[in-house]
Amino acid sequence: MPRRTPRFTLDILRTPGRFPGFLKTASVCALIAGLLSPLSQVAAAAEVTAANDYCGGQCSDILPPGENGNATLAQILLNQAFGTQPDHAEDQLGPYANLAKGYPTLTNATINTFFNDASFGVASDQVASTLSPAGRSDVTIVRDKKTGVPHITGTTRYGTEFGAGYAAAQDRLWLMDVFRHVGRGQLTAFAGGDPSNQGLEQQFWRNAPYTEADLQAQIDNAVAGNGTRGQQALADANAYLAGVNAYIDASDSGRYFPGEYVLTGHKDSITNAGTIDHFKITDLVALASVIGALFGSGGGGEVNNAVSLLAAQEKYGVEQGTQVWEAFRERNDPEAVLTVHNGQSFPYATKPASPQGEALPDTGSVTSEPLIYDATGTGGDATATATSATATATALGSARRGMSNALVVSGQATASGHPIAVFGPQTGYFAPQLLMLQEIQGPGISARGASFAGLSMYVELGRGQDYAWSATTSGQDIIDTYAVELCQDDYHYLYHGTCTAMDVVEQKNAWKPTTADGTAAGSYTMRVYRTKYGPVEYRATAGGKKVAYTTLRSSYMHEADSIIGFQMLNDPDYVKSPQTFQSAVQHINYTFNWFYADSTHTAYYNSGDNPVRASGVDAEFPVWAQAAYEWKSWVPATNTAEYTPASAHPNSIDQDYYISWNNKQAKDYSTASWGDGSVHRGNLLEDRVKKLVAAGGVTRASLTKAMADAALADLRAEDVLPDLLKVINSSTVTDSTAAAAVTKLQTWLTAGGRRTETTAGSKTYADADAIRILDAWWPLLVKAEFEPGLGTGLYTAFTANLPIDEAPSAAHGPTGAHAGSSFQYGWWSYVDKDIRAVLGEPVQGALPQKYCGSGTVSSCRDILISTLKTAAGKTAAQVYPGDTLCAAGNQWCADSIVQRTLGGIKHGNISWQNRPTFQQVVEFTSHR
Predict the structure, then answer these.
(1) What are all long-range contacts of 753-758, with beta carbons under 8 Å and residues at least 24 apart?
(2) Separation CA 429–CA 916 (nearest Å)
(3) Which of 78, 167, 187, 491 sees the fewest Cβ atoms within 10 Å?
(4) In angstroms, rounded to a whole number, what is the distance separating the alpha carbons of residues 83 and 44?
(5) Are 900 and 818 in contact (CB under 8 A)?
(6) Is 95 exposed, middle or buried (0-12, 13-18, 19+ CB in 10 A)?
(7) Sorting pLDDT into bands at 50, 70 and 90, what band is 392?
(8) What is the 3-state secondary structure (H, E, C) of 749-790?
(9) Are the beta carbons of 806 and 816 closer than 8 angstroms?
(10) 425-439, 661-675, 815-829: least confidently modelled range
(11) What is the rounded CA–CA span in Å between residue 32 and residue 21?
């Protein structure tokens, strides 16, 4: 059966054929002509002079597809009918894509062929327009000719933030509206009942089922607990909202609002009837809850961990089974690549000597908690049921996919003597993009960079006057699972000995077909049962007692708190050094790795509210919901507790270099997700940057080349295939099919093991056969290598903890297939350690036994050759079965990146790269 590419909000707008007949061909042209008459925004050009910019023209950035994420109905119809693009809708997509073949000849002088100049201000001859939003005299929005990025300059703080809100709505109003509805669990009612919309709202609302009172309480608490900065944040947010709403009013009366409001039935294209709801301050918290859940909430998975532990103990007995489980868990693998690599230890969530309070489920008793009730129509059909199952698995797992990377080199190793950084977040690919570029200059704010749409009152990732910063997702464990003992019925539980009723939170959604989404009518109710220990996620028995498993996250009910840290990062009077940078990001409770560079120093800090657990509690497994096992000083009413001090978080200043690709942060610092072993995609950066630093003379171009080269590397080929070929070539390969496959794999490996086109735009991979063979071989060899030794039950349980593979063509990650991010989670470390052990090579943190061929080279070789022959015989159509975008057998297309449509404008797919979505290249030349 062909693989279906998951569709996100309004993805059906990608295909013109999905429009009803009256919107096709000549009728489309007539309708477009009629819609071109509304007034558009017109503004005169003016000069803006850069100020306080210490980067010397050596700061660059890129964010595909383009800055303009709004399109009128006429522009959407033109795009659907003829492929035309609104101005600045995709002018950053080409340069971004071209780096894949252009990086080998990259020089400092040609960096901005593939990136934007991220200097402050706009040269007078590059000013496209200047706007004083809503006629205000205290703020201007200047847009440049090349990219249309807004450069907001205010003379008052209120005016500055008003301008930021206005510019955000100009560029991302529809997207902002989509995601405030996602955060509130109301997407299907707003945008339609497409299965992708159902899955999206279910995934996020399960983890953050907030009422309006909950959202407001977050704001009140964040303001009350942060003094003058809290008051300033509230004032900034209100000014920002005023700007957003001013644009809504202006675009509504001028009839240049996003056309998706018409296509989804919220506005009438002829009479202009209908409304676009104003944004309110609780919408910002709803938006923040989505972003925090997607990129900054490490942890979870304790029930899955318990299930696989029980499977291991069932096979091997308690003692040996636990040892086997720990070996595969790799909590503190000595061969894991580290961000802080100077040997410094930061113990957190380590295995206790004598675990206390564990509440493991009885074997076979676990069931996930239903979210959907009273479903009708397309809310309860087979597709909807499958969608809900996928959303549940994603929400409850510990893996956080599709993240970010960073390469930062100290000035001691650079040609100029100044630090260099190439870094950015890997947030998936959307149209319009989740992030937006902006520059903000005003009292207490001076920054340029990217912010999530709807949360752009401050730059969240970018550069200040003489420093730059970025983040990657860290994934340390701030989520714990508690077993609450039930009493009276399934909806009461024991809290400190008292039978207590669970809270019930519901969201009822209904939808009907629209022009944008033809999904037939349907409805359902999302229902979450909440306890003081968080929402119920599973039901089971433990020791024969009926329990509900809940998840408690330290950032639960606290998504608004991080606004203070972002405010500080934008304040040139606050961030003046690596120490003050670290102080700023300590105010961010999302689980991120933060990186910093100025003209002299580099720095790193791991953020997040890491709860102090009770003595003996193992963060890997559920514990009983009893006072003895609660977080230290935990207050249920506010979900506050004692957190580990800043000094206990992995941190560093002026290390020779830093790399991060969601790998292990430091020695003894455990992350919630599995896979921090001997082979990790972080090794692709570590190996390249370490070599550059050893040679010295690092430049912006050479560090960018290192990133770009790693972005095309197949991790399995670079770091595991050589040892697999050692085993196979331990004696002469006589089988002709296997021998031909080995030759192709070796040729590809010699060429670098990259997934890259023959020439730019060819849409055909060099070494295509070798890539096809490895893609087909990997799952076969892993299964043949490990399942016989582990047994089917334990092998299956471990694959639920850690997937076998994440090749570029696989439908994994938060955005499904065609998402770029690859090789984050897989069994490459297990294969690497096992094969090296079979070869008799030294292995630190070895697996408990040799699995391949029961440990003999000859038997292992037989397994590898047998599976290799099978893989070599698979056709391209079998390996790449096709989806709604790609024909079966089209290898390049299967890997390719798609800007997944969240609105009406579609873009072409680009060749695969495994790199940040928004990316900076920075080298500051001086400091204040």
Answers:
(1) 753/713, 753/714, 753/717, 753/718, 753/721, 754/709, 754/712, 754/713, 754/714, 755/712, 755/713, 755/714, 755/808, 755/895, 755/912, 756/100, 756/101, 756/712, 756/911, 757/100, 757/101, 757/892, 757/911
(2) 10
(3) 491
(4) 29
(5) yes
(6) middle
(7) confident
(8) HHCCCECCECCCCCCCECCHHHHHHHHHHHHHHHHHHHHHHH
(9) no
(10) 815-829
(11) 15
For residues 156 and 442, give the distance between their C-alpha atoms in angstroms, rounded to a whole number.
Answer: 7
Task: For residues 730 and 135, give the distance between their C-alpha atoms in angstroms, rounded to a whole number.
Answer: 77
Distance CA 7, CA 11 (A): 5
User: What is the predicted pLDDT for the residue at 399?
Assistant: 57
What is the C-alpha separation between 7 and 198, in angstroms, rounded?
Answer: 11
| pLDDT for position 398 | 55
**What is the distance between the alpha carbons of residues 63 and 150, in angstroms, rounded to a whole number?**
14
For 52-65, write each residue's pLDDT tens digit: 999 999 999 999 99
Residue with tokens 């497409």: 194
Q: Which residues pair with 438 in a beta bridge?
A: 449
Here the contacts of 309-312 (C-beta below 8 Å, separation 24 or greater) are 309/360, 309/621, 310/360, 310/361, 310/363, 311/793, 311/794, 311/797, 312/794, 312/797
Supply the Cα-derived Rg of the chain in whole angstroms: 27
Alpha carbon distance 347, 644 (integer Å): 11
**pLDDT beyond 50 at 18:** no
Tracing tokens 């020779």 back to the chain, one arrives at 656
Of 552, 427, 583, the closest CA to residue 484 belongs to 552
Q: How far apart are CA 154 and CA 137, in angstroms?
A: 9
Cα(571)–Cα(793) distance, integer angstroms: 55
The confidence band for 300, taking pLDDT boundaries of 50, 70 and 90, is confident
Compute the distance between CA of residue 244 and CA of residue 822 in angstroms, rounded to an integer: 36
CB 851 within 8 A of CB 785: yes
Cβ atoms of 480 and 552 within 8 Å: the answer is: yes
Tokens found for residue 511: 């939808």
Report whether the peptide linkage leading into residue 808 is cis, meaning its omega lies within 30 degrees of zero.
Answer: no
- How many other CB atoms are there within 10 angstroms of residue 564's CB atom? 23
Strands 435-442 and 150-154: parallel
Residue bearing the bigger pLDDT, 38 or 89 = 89
Tokens of 470: 């970025």
CA distances from 470 to 60, 346, 421 (A): 13, 22, 9
Query: In one letter, which amino acid is 422?
Result: V
Q: What is the mean pLDDT of the chain?
A: 92
Cβ distance 162 to 246 under 8 Å? yes
Report the pLDDT averaged over residues 165-191. Answer: 96
- pLDDT the model gives residue 204: 87
Helices (H) and strands (E) in the chain, counts: 26, 30
pLDDT on residue 40: 40
Count of CB atoms within 10 A of residue 132's CB?
15
How many residues are recorded in the chain?
928
Expressed in angstroms, the distance from the first to the final Cα of the chain is 61
Distance of alpha carbon 284 from the chain centroid: 19
Strand partners, 595: 470, 604
Give tens-digit pLDDT for 187-203. Answer: 999 999 999 899 989 98
Q: Which two tokens stand for residue 900?
A: 């997944």
What tokens were used for 420?
Answer: 């260099």
Token pair recorded at residue 578: 């690596």
The residues, ordered by sequence, that sit 6+ positions from 13 with a Cβ below 8 Å of its Cβ are: 76, 80, 260, 263, 516, 901, 903, 904, 906
- The rounded distance, in Å, linking the Cα atoms of 720 and 731 is 19
- Look up residue 79 and give its two tokens: 């795009």
Mean pLDDT of all residues in 316-331: 97
DSSP single-letter state for residue 799: H
